[in-house]
Amino acid sequence: MMSMQIMVINGDPKKEGFISGALEIVAERIKAKGCEVKSVRLADVRIQDCLGCFTCLKTGDCPLNDDMKAIIGNMLASDGFVVGAPVRNGLTTACYKRFYERITYLLGFTLLLEDKHTLAISSVGFMGGEAVNRKCLGLQDVFRTRLSDYLFFKVGIPARFQPAQAKDRLELAADRLAHNIATKARKGIFDRAAAAFDRLIIGKFMLMKNPEQYAHVIKCWRQKDYLP
Question: Which phi and psi angles does 167 have, rounded to 5°?
Answer without folding.
Answer: -55, -45
